[in-house]
Q: What sequence folds into this?
């Protein structure tokens, strides 16, 4: 059974879902159909050779295709995870996509869960007290684990800002790193997971119940009606994402400042602008 050639390890809320679909269009690249399985984070690698559950994802790959996975959670796993990953797949190419950690944390907070109106009034405190939201943005800490285990030649860091500004050039540079044809042009016009605020109300609860229905029960409702109901409930249970408060932005900049400055030293990427205001 063939092993993966590359993994995009994250970061979370940095365009990984869009990249999954862009890369999946390339005829020389094979990805599992479902992005977000993250099987390696669910299993003991010591059992990998016995279960084959992870490698089975690549069973349908064609001859000569480059095999890969796109994850948003592998990047901020612990040292043991990264060490075992390098031991299991020593020749793996690692791709990291990094977004302004302040904006990333804010986006993560709204993706993570729904909020009541009262919680939204204390939203800044909820973000600043959540390790789940803050920890993925400790970029230098996480990147050093991958550089130590895989080496600089096998780890490539990209910036989310570049994906937003010129998606075609971004994926072309990624193709070059992966060793596939760089002249292929995917459809990069669609953006995935743009994100709204999920409101914790009765409409949201109905939406969750609908998703939990069995396939048999769903089949009893015509597809156009299911689509109409889903769209109606979604519109009632979401709201546009509010602008981040200046106080929260300042606090997050202070929190991430040392990590960002160390990241710039590690990679040579000009990212100090992410926390520039925190120095004033």
A:
């Amino acid at each position: 059974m063939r092993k993966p050639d590359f993994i995009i390890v994250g970061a979370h809320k940095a365009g990984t879902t869009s990249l999954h679909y862009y890369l999946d269009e390339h005829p020389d690249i094979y990805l599992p159909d479902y992005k977000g399985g993250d099987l390696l984070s669910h299993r003991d690698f010591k059992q990998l050779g016995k279960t084959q559950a992870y490698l089975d994802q690549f069973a349908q790959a064609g001859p000569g295709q480059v095999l890969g996975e796109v994850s948003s959670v592998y990047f901020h796993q612990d040292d043991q995870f990264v060490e075992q990953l390098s031991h299991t797949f020593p020749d793996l190419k690692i791709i990291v996509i990094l977004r302004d950690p302040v904006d990333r944390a804010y986006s993560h907070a709204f993706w993570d869960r729904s909020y009541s109106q009262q919680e939204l009034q204390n939203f800044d405190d909820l973000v600043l007290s959540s390790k789940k939201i803050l920890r993925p943005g400790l970029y230098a800490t996480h990147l050093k684990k991958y550089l130590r285990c895989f080496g600089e030649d096998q780890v490539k860091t990209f910036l989310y800002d570049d994906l937003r500004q010129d998606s075609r050039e971004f994926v072309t540079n990624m193709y070059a790193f992966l060793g596939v044809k760089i002249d292929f042009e995917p459809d990069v016009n669609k953006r995935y997971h743009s994100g709204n605020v999920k409101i914790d109300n009765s409409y949201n609860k109905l939406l969750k119940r609908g998703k939990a229905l069995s396939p048999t029960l769903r089949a009893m409702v015509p597809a156009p009606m299911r689509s109409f109901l889903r769209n109606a409930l979604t519109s009632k249970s979401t709201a546009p994402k509010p602008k981040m408060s200046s106080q929260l932005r300042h606090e997050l900049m202070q929190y991430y400042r040392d990590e960002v400055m160390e990241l710039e030293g590690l990679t040579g990427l000009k990212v100090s602008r992410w926390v520039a205001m925190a120095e004033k």
Q: What stands out?
A: The CA atoms of residues 123 and 129 lie 10 Å apart. The longest strand covers residues 93-98. The chain has 14 helices and seven strands.
